[in-house]
UniProtKB/TrEMBL annotation:
It comes from Rubrivivax gelatinosus (strain NBRC 100245 / IL144). The keyword Nucleotide-binding does not apply. Residues 16-76 form the HTH tetR-type domain. This is Transcriptional regulator, TetR family. Residues 39-58 bind DNA. One of its GO terms (molecular function) is DNA-binding transcription factor activity. The keyword Transcription regulation applies. InterPro entries: DNA-bd_HTH_TetR-type_CS (IPR023772), Homeodomain-like_sf (IPR009057), HTH-type_TetR-like_transc_reg (IPR050109), HTH_TetR (IPR001647). Keywords: DNA-binding, Repressor, Transcription, Transcription regulation. It comes from the Bacteria.
Length: 230
């Protein structure tokens, strides 16, 4: 009985490892070629596996993409509520730095940025933005619906910084203190009674974001004003 359980446990471990290899390979291929252009052949070749192994775990490219998007969360989606209330700017700065410095986080972010028109990716972008928005609302100490507009300078700074850094080679280091200072400025602007309101920029979703654009015009405006160049 013990030997059977051990063998069963080993098979389960091997299956998990195979599944993870396929997910990792899919992430690489989706970023290198785009989701639309990626082929299952390229994914299994990158994983060093067979199509049979892929179809054992996934129905096809769509289910593989969905599993990949569900298996990873960016640091900006895991901001501790207490940290955001106590020290929001340094907390956001560390999360941005970890996103652009860690290979897996960077890969997921690049996948989202480069494939916004893929339905599964668009849904994942909206989910990530919703999580970030809730964190910003905690930092601003408000839950009102208007908070999504008051947080525009902060969101723009975060998204603008990520968009710029993701198009460059991975940085050797990130000036977390400098980025925190910039984010503190953006938070200060957001807290002002006359904080600027983003101008209309096409179809806007319920959370105030356009799913088809990673950096809409208002975001670009604030990123340029408060984030500057790297």
């Amino acid at each position: 009985m013990g030997a059977r359980r051990a063998a069963s446990g080993l098979k389960a471990q091997q299956a998990d490892e195979t599944r993870q290899r396929l997910l990792d390979a899919a992430g690489r291929v989706f970023v290198e070629t785009s989701v639309a252009s990626a082929t299952l052949e390229a994914i299994v070749r990158s994983a060093g596996l067979t199509r049979g192994a892929l179809y054992w775990h996934f129905d096809g490219k769509s289910s593989l993409l969905q599993a990949l998007l569900q298996s990873r969360r960016l640091p900006l989606e895991q901001l501790a509520p207490e940290d955001m209330r106590r020290a929001p700017a340094p907390t956001l700065a560390r999360a941005v730095a970890e996103t652009v410095s860690d290979a897996r986080h960077r890969e997921l972010c690049q996948l989202l940025v480069r494939n916004p028109d893929v339905p599964e990716v668009r849904e994942r972008i909206l989910l990530a933005r919703c999580r970030l928005q809730r964190a910003i609302q905690r930092a601003l100490g408000t839950r009102q619906a208007a908070a999504r507009h008051l947080g525009w300078p902060v969101r723009a700074c975060v998204i603008g910084t990520l968009a710029e850094w993701l198009e460059l080679p991975p940085p050797a280091g990130v000036d977390v203190d400098g980025l925190a200072a910039v984010l503190e400025q953006a938070l200060g602007v957001s807290r002002q009674p006359d904080a600027p309101h983003p101008s209309p920029c096409g179809v806007v979703q319920e959370d105030g974001m356009r799913p088809s654009s990673v950096l809409p015009p208002p975001c670009a405006h604030w990123a340029g004003r408060y984030c500057g160049k790297r």
